[in-house]
Amino acid sequence: MTTDAILDELRKVCDERASPAEETDAVGGVPARYVASPASTEQTAELLRIASRHGLRVVARGGATKLDWGGPPSAVDVVVDTRLITGVVEHAAGDLVVIVSAGTPVDTLQTALAEAGQRLALDVSEHGATVGGAVATNSSGPRRLLYGTVRDLLIGVTFVRADGVVAKAGGKVVKNVAGYDFAKLLTGSHGTLGLLTQAVFRLHPIAPASRVVSVEVSDAGEAGRQVAAVAGSQVVATAVEVDAPHFGPMTVAVLIEGTDDGVARRETTAATLLGSTTADDKVPPWFGCYPFEPGGIGLKLTTEIAGLATMMLSVRRSADRHGVPVDVRGSGAGVVYAGLPATTAPADAAAVVADLRAAAPTYGGTVVVLTAPAAVRDVVDLWGPVAGLDLMRRLKDQLDPGHLLAPGRFVGGI
Question: CA geometry: angle at 253 spanning 249 and 256, to 5°?
Answer without folding.
Answer: 170
